[in-house]
Structures are given as structure tokens and as C-alpha cells.
């Protein structure tokens, strides 16, 4: 079996790395009755403050349809509050409750212990380098799309070649 690729599967490696890292944190989340998605929402709101649901979806990497259910459960559990602005009823804003802020204070200790374990295993420089490389990957510009005139010329050229060969 021949491999047609010169490069390793970077998206798959990133997913495996995420799973490897999350093993350090799942126990703490489970002990506090939180799902990974709920924790991501809490971390985002804790770091950035109250925000609109669309931005929460982007910042927490949760698709909007999934986020809706996550926020419903979090609201029922007293972890968040939602409200609409008087000037624009279409937008829903979400903030943490005191219960969530207390939870962050409590769980942050065990989370930081796990980060300490990761730092011991990777070394401080290794962890900092991992952060820097991930930040660099996140900030990559999107791929350059083929310009429309060039694309049309390529299609015409292919069509002409097919006609000549027919």
C-alpha cells in the first residue's frame, strides 16, 4: 500500500493531542458535574465576561445548534443567566451566576494542579512552546482561493483539451 501523502495528518494529530490533554481534566469536571462543553462555556464567560450567544459559540468552539442545548441545561442548573437587550430583542446575552463563579474558584485549584503535572511532563519551555505554536496555528490566514478569472481560464483550457481529444 503506497502513501500518497508527504505530510502527516495534522488535523488528526491535533484531535489526538486534545484527547490526550483532556484526560488530565475530565475527572475534575466529572466530580463537579460538568461536561466539557459546559466547562468551555464557563471558561469563556469567566475570562471575557457576559457576551452574546454567537460569540460564545465561536470562543468555546461549540456549534450554535449544540450550544443552545448546552445553555438550556446550564440555565436549568443555575450556572448561567440569559437576557435580551431592550434595544435589540433578537440578541441573547449570557453571564455567569454566583454559583458558577464559586465553582470556578473551587475547580480552578484542581485544574491548575493538572496544568502543573503537564508542565512537569513537558517542561516549562515545552508547555510555553506548545502554547506559542498553537497560537500560531490558530492565527493562520485562510487558504488563498483561486481567483475567478484564473479558475475560468483553467476550466476553458480543460474543456478545450477534452474537445481536442474527442
From TrEMBL:
<dbReference type="GO" id="GO:0006950">
    <property type="term" value="P:response to stress"/>
</dbReference>
<protein>
    <submittedName>
        <fullName>Homoprotocatechuate degradation regulator HpaR</fullName>
    </submittedName>
</protein>
<dbReference type="GO" id="GO:0045892">
    <property type="term" value="P:negative regulation of DNA-templated transcription"/>
</dbReference>
<dbReference type="Pfam" id="PF01047">
    <property type="entry name" value="MarR"/>
</dbReference>
<dbReference type="GO" id="GO:0003677">
    <property type="term" value="F:DNA binding"/>
</dbReference>
<dbReference type="InterPro" id="IPR012712">
    <property type="entry name" value="HpaR/FarR"/>
</dbReference>
<dbReference type="InterPro" id="IPR036388">
    <property type="entry name" value="WH-like_DNA-bd_sf"/>
</dbReference>
<dbReference type="InterPro" id="IPR000835">
    <property type="entry name" value="HTH_MarR-typ"/>
</dbReference>
<dbReference type="InterPro" id="IPR036390">
    <property type="entry name" value="WH_DNA-bd_sf"/>
</dbReference>
<keyword id="KW-0804">Transcription</keyword>
<feature type="region of interest" description="Disordered">
    <location>
        <begin position="144"/>
        <end position="166"/>
    </location>
</feature>
<keyword id="KW-0238">DNA-binding</keyword>
<dbReference type="InterPro" id="IPR023187">
    <property type="entry name" value="Tscrpt_reg_MarR-type_CS"/>
</dbReference>
<dbReference type="InterPro" id="IPR039422">
    <property type="entry name" value="MarR/SlyA-like"/>
</dbReference>
<keyword id="KW-0805">Transcription regulation</keyword>
<feature type="domain" description="HTH marR-type">
    <location>
        <begin position="7"/>
        <end position="139"/>
    </location>
</feature>
<dbReference type="GO" id="GO:0003700">
    <property type="term" value="F:DNA-binding transcription factor activity"/>
</dbReference>
